[in-house]
Amino acid sequence: MPGFFSPFITKPDSVSQIMLKVLLALIPGIALYVWHFGPAILVSITLASLTALATEALMLRLRNRPIAPFLKDNSALLTGWLLALSIPPLAPWWLVVIGTAFAISVSKHLYGGLGNNPFNPAMIGYAVLIISFPVQMTQWLSPHGMGSVELGFIEQLNYIFLGVFPEGIKLDALTMATPLDTLKTQLHLDGQIREILDMPIYGRLAGHGSEMVAAGFLLGGLYLLATRIISWHIPVVYLGTLFAVAGLFHLLDPAHYVEPLFHWFSGAAMIGAFFILTDPITSPTTHKGKLIFAFGAGLLTYLIRAFGGFPDGMAFATLLMNICVPLIDAYTQPKVFGKKGQKS
Q1: Do 132 and 210 share a domain, yes or no?
Q2: Lowest-confidence segment of 44-58, 76-90, 117-131, 136-150 by average pLDDT
Q3: How far apart are CA 231 and CA 13, in angstroms?
Q4: Looking at the structure, do residues 156 and 193 belong to the same domain, yes or no?
Q5: Which of 5, 52, 111, 140 gives a 20 to 30 Å CA spacing to 331?
């Protein structure tokens, strides 16, 4: 009949298209990273991308699997980008290569490749690096205008690949502790929250520069939600749990526990909420399971930040909750329609 049409059925996005959209969603955060901290992060992303693709091809060859289709699915690139964004931008080239190669070869292909890995590969790579090379993993660049010296792009390249600075310049003049690390250190020295947040490193919500980078990842995350690449369950519950727990401690002792928005815009909370925890392979498959998973990750992130030995708990919270995913899925599967209960 005129005016009546059959429903339109759209073809679902392929793995390659989904991964590409996630990569695009990272660009606002990366752009703000470059604006506030310089272009060194682009070198890390490039190194991680090349290493990820090369390691992926090597492992596929060793496993006698077709190389081209898997290289084109963009999953290796996403792992490389997430790892590069999790480590200091002035990290030496070999650190990026080791972390990325380990993430792809061991935490992905050792378990059978894409779709079979129980742990987020990028977070496994980060955990290996922070435990094995703690000194190199704490050399974070100062935001523009905060350090006593700033390097040009060529000078940054010389340090990343050759380990040398211009004469008279030391690493301490270029780097500083992260806002979370500074907060934890000052609290251990019996500092008060109000005094600590008056330090030059801090801005309106969290750290100078880093709070804007987090806002960029928030913008990219909203794009993923709008395009239905991810569902709301994990990011909303994760950020809500982090906010609620941080708010409770802040209400009980505002002199020693910072307000909730600080935790949202510090460290890896935003990139973790939208890009890491939402990994469909290493997160639960049910809606109820995603809520439990996100709640646990938010709680663990705060506990590690406030009471643990690492300034940011995002990576370890992710990996600990990855362990629980099979159990969560087993207990949150909906009942099969029409199945009768067994009599005892």
Answers
A1: no
A2: 136-150
A3: 15
A4: no
A5: 111
- Pairwise CA distance, residues 273 & 337, whole Å: 33
DSSP 265: T
Q: How far apart, in whole angstroms, are the C-alpha atoms of residue 342 and residue 282? A: 33
The whole-angstrom separation of Cα 291 and Cα 279 is 14
Q: Are 289 and 329 in contact (CB under 8 A)?
A: yes
Q: Name which of 187, 168, 162, 169 is nearest 177 in CA terms.
A: 187
> Which of these, 258, 271, 254, lies nearest to 302 by C-alpha position?
258
Number of domains into which the chain is organized? 2
Structure-block tokens of residue 148: 């006593």
Burial of 17 (0-12, 13-18, 19+ CB in 10 A): middle
Characterize 254-281 residue by residue with b for buried, 16 or more Cβ atoms within 10 angstroms of its Cβ, and e for exposed. eeebbbbebbbbbbbbbbbbbbbbbbeb
Q: What span, in angstroms and rounded, lies between the C-alpha atoms of 23 and 258? A: 32
The verdict on 55 and 160 lying in the same domain is yes
| C-alpha–C-alpha distance, residues 191 and 255, integer Å | 9
Q: Are residues 300 and 262 in the same domain?
A: yes
Left, alpha or beta for 40 (phi > 0: left; psi -120 to 50: alpha)?
Answer: alpha
Could you give the CA distance from residue 64 to residue 87 in angstroms, rounded to a whole number?
Answer: 32
Number of H helices, E strands in the chain: 15, 2
* 174 vs 265 pLDDT, higher one: 265
Q: Are residues 134 and 69 in the same domain?
A: yes
| Sign of the alpha-carbon torsion through 89, 91, 97, 103 | negative
- Predicted pLDDT of residue 69: 87
Is-contact 262 204, C-beta < 8 A? Answer: no
Angle made by CA atoms 33, 39, 43, in degrees to the nearest 5 = 110
Contacts of 240 (CB under 8 A, 6+ apart): 298
Cβ neighbours, 10 Å, residue 216? 22
26 and 126, same structural domain? yes
CA angle 94, 161, 130 (to 5 degrees): 35
Tens of pLDDT, residues 145-198: 676 677 788 888 888 898 887 777 777 777 788 899 999 999 989 899 999 999
